[in-house]
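Sequence in, structure out. First:
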Amino acid sequence: MYRADTLVNKGLKIIEKLYEGKRNYELTNHLGNVMAVINDRKTDTIIGVNKGYNAVVISATDYFPFGMAIDSRSFTSSLYRYGFNTQERDNEINGNTYSAEFWEYDARSGRRWNIDPITYSFQSSYATLNNNPIIFEDKNGLYGSKGSAEKFRERAKRAGKEVGEVYQSGKEWGFYTYDPQKSGTKDKDGSSYSGGHEFNKRYFGNAGQRVSDFFKDINPFKNLEVYASGVIKQSFENEKIPNTTLVIPYGGGQLAWSSDRGGNVRVLTAADNYVNVKTGKVDVRVMPTNGLVRIQSDRTGAQGDWDPNLRVLYTLHKAPIMVPIFDVPIKVGDYKIQGDAVFGLQATRLGIRGTAETLKLFNIFSIEVAAGARVELKIPDILKD
């Protein structure tokens, strides 16, 4: 095999002249920070009766958290220009300044010199490495999480950009946007053009989009649900446990609609029974057997007023329903305005509910109609990224 560093003299004799020391090898840590650099020149060493070799060290650097070199634990040759975050060191300023594709960075303060176009409502525009250099890296100036990259990708799509799929590069995430006026063929995953026609690795959007995204980031609500129901039910009080009642519906119906799960019509039966524990203005409902006889497809829509979870109702206002009979007001029931909180394994919902219930008819059952609205809570996106 011919080697570029081998001289051949008319085929009579091969004279090898190895140009050692021109290959550098970077030794990095888990974030890609260059801790030491050695070249391919080796020096002889003898330990006891054994002969060995030592590598020639070009650079060795230990860092403070954001990349400032520790003077007493560092040696850097002028022949090598790279270091923390695999970026190029600018020795003309102070030796702790780094240049990247999208930014200038001062390792002494842990801050960039220019504003980052990737904005986060919870973080300074001058921050680097998500303020956590032990976990994150920022070699290419991309996004610190897959969720952030997906959010900005959707922003680019809304702006009419042609975008590729989100890809991972080390501990960073990004996507390409493409110029529709240029020809070329995208790779299968859309991460790059075969002809090199990607014209931007990032997209930030205009000021209006950033304001809109800020409110989406802090929004704690996932969806809205409204419902109305009517039911004939009977209540059985537990004499051994004070203020505890078993409620069994004899029949009824419910209409419910959710902004993410759509509408749902339900027939209420005895399987929708619940246990109610009352303390002052607070009612706690547990539905242990709710929905056991309903088919699975009935459970995909909005849950409405008969949600098979732990439910807490707080009575904000209560008043009797009076009906004049022969000019004499007769009480026929009560109406309530209640705060509503539903706690489940998959979701927590808060809302308000209005209900009207008759007195017991024939001292057996009562009729209840109710309507309400509530929102499902979520962890705001601002706490995820």
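Second:
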Amino acid sequence: MPTLTRVNAPDYAQLGPSTPRIFGRSKREARALSSQLMGTKRLSSVSETGPALNFAGLVERVIPLVAELLTTLASTDPLRMSFADIASKTLLDIVETLRADGVSQEAIAAALDLTITGFRAKHRRLLELYREAPTRPGGTRTPTLLERVYGYVDEQARGSEPVTHARIAARFRGIKADTLGGVLRFLIQYGLLSVSGRGSARSYRVVLRRRVKGDTLLDAAVVLYREGPLSVVDLARHLSSTEAAAAQRVATLDAAGRLDRIVGADDVIRYRCRDYHIPLGAPDGFEPALWDHLRLVVRAITKKVRLARLRAMPDDRIGGTTFSFSLPVGHPLHTEVVEFLSRTRLEMESWRERTLAIDPTTVVGAQWQSVSIYTGQMVDDLAEPPRTFAADDSATSER
């Protein structure tokens, strides 16, 4: 289980309410982040230390990596696997991030190979679809055809009788036969349905009944930390739960002294969680831990590039280092290297405890910084040792 630590220190996520985006920034957060990183400057296409770097080529190489990540995450829940909206949502996020950076609509339209009229029409349609549409109870996601077919078989086969192919075809008569057949084969392949009989006599049963995880206290703490301040009503919407359940989560967190209360001009009480922590061995928390790791990696790279610090220096405070070692198992150095992640987790747990022990009254007037660290490790079995490489993405060049 990844360990994720959040301590009570300033962070971009605390800038105000936001709506999750595929790249993790709402329009408000993108503006705030851009303002803090860029000030009145604009990143030049040419570094003062040399010719322009081929970031466009890097984008082309990043896209397959992102596609692999999205596919891997989505396929862990095959019923909910849906990619239909990714392209449109990504385009909208790119447009809003560029606009937050001060790029004109005309320049964005040119980059998208659109006329300004065509760009404005497309942008308006995307806003209506993803930002301005009313929120339905339980969220805005439409169930996939996989979910609908599975749900029908699950509902109809509660008794002893399986569901015939004819009944399924009648229920989904608007779906092409080959599409429906492909969906059924997919559900069988993933072990969610079983089939008996052949041809028109085929019938289906549910093999693996899905268990949907309800919202937990950790889910509420994470949402109130990232998206707060939120009212109980807003928290219930984020968690896709009832207001009564959300109110209970808030009461528990408040009783533990973990919440700040903010009363708005509308006299509605809103809450923000001061911190959250997912300790080693926790049964819950993999999703927020993974999200925070990815979010920090992306933001660290983005900040480095925007600041135009495009070389690695020994005294860097922002950046990263990637090393790969080919070592024989059982060698003393292999043991030392492979235990790096375990040692680092324990050290960060210690830093967290020491951070929480700091009394703010003893450092009045001191400047505070949020220092965020991401650590990862991967181990592969090799048929033969490849060459060792090291690549630093950190830098110090100031614009």
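Remark: Residues 1-49, 133-140, 391-399 have pLDDT under 50 and may be disordered.
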